[in-house]
Amino acid sequence: MSVRELVVLGTSSAVPTPRRNHNGYFLRFDGHGVLVDPGEGTQLQMRRAGVSAHDITRILITHFHGDHCLGLPGVIQRIARDGVTHPVYCAYPAQGAHYFDRLRHASAFGDTDAIRPQPLCGEAAACGGDADLQVSARALDHSIACYGYRLAEPDGWTMLPDLLARRGITGPDAGRLKTRGHVTAPDGRRVELAECARPRRGQVVAFVFDTAPCAAAEELARGADLLVIEATYTASEAALAAAYGHLTAPQAGAIAAAAGAKALVLTHFSERYEPAEAPRFAAEAAAAGFTGPITVAADLDRVTLPPRRR
């Protein structure tokens, strides 16, 4: 059975706390395992969450501030140590390539050729991916080169058994209809896919970290089924957010609302806030206009993707 869920490995920003590890997010999406921003301590958090090196198919680095990348050496060395043989594509800002190289070879270990670097350039970049999950990136507004990521499943079709039966389409022919777009019915008539199915929108997950409010953040989040976004500060610290290129909870909620996101996960909290203050973040995001479900992330949370939209 396929699994689509976000595993939260860490939710703190620059400074980890006794209750919040540095950033780290693992997206299970059917056969894909996408690790986003492995901060310090990610390898241990993976063990606690039951995520293995073999589960990782892709690593996405938004930027090279330490809370978003200092766990990368341990993760890569674990991939090597555990003998992962499938390719693990690793996207990151090309302007930080020297940091990637230092982290990639931070200490002595038996290296691996499983890691496939993907340096990103420009305002928008395609990160490749597979036919069933495409990855794209857009440059955000931060103090150093920083990208947000959008993972999109292609649109598809939901087969309708009653309509298939009415046209005499059964067994392997139903599969061929979905694959080819048409088949010949037993009575010799050509049957088109649209006669027996309805369009199904592909699911979208977006990650937006470390940015001032900007058009690119909203574009990444457009129509996302799940938007994972920083809310480093509450509204009372808006001046700090502006000074350091971060979002407040109301700004995160406003971006989600304007983009039409379906569900919102707030994370990347300043060390000044205790987990008990989580309701404050949710309330401020909702007050900014977001009416969907809001998760104020805690370490080791698991957030299931919302049901597919029809």
From TrEMBL:
Binding site for Zn(2+) 2: 67-68, 210, 268
InterPro entries linked to this entry: Metallo-B-lactamas, RibonucZ/Hydroxyglut_hydro, RNase_Z/BN
Molecular function in Gene Ontology: 3'-tRNA processing endoribonuclease activity; zinc ion binding
Nuclease is among the record's keywords: yes
Enzyme Commission number, as recorded: 3.1.26.11
Domain Metallo-beta-lactamase as annotated: residue spans: 19-108
Protein's UniProt keywords contain GTP-binding: no
Xref: SUPFAM superfamilies: Metallo-hydrolase/oxidoreductase
Cofactor note: Binds 2 Zn(2+) ions.
UniProtKB keywords: Endonuclease, Hydrolase, Metal-binding, Nuclease, tRNA processing, Zinc
Cofactor dependency: Zn(2+)
Gene3D superfamilies for the chain: Ribonuclease Z/Hydroxyacylglutathione hydrolase-like (3.60.15.10)
Binding site for Zn(2+) 1: 63, 65, 142, 210
Catalytic activity reported: Endonucleolytic cleavage of RNA, removing extra 3' nucleotides from tRNA precursor, generating 3' termini of tRNAs. A 3'-hydroxy group is left at the tRNA terminus and a 5'-phosphoryl group is left at the trailer molecule
Catalytic center residues: 67
Record family assignment: Belongs to the RNase Z family.
Subunit structure, interactors included: Homodimer.
Function: Zinc phosphodiesterase, which displays some tRNA 3'-processing endonuclease activity. Probably involved in tRNA maturation, by removing a 3'-trailer from precursor tRNA.
Protein name per the record: Ribonuclease Z
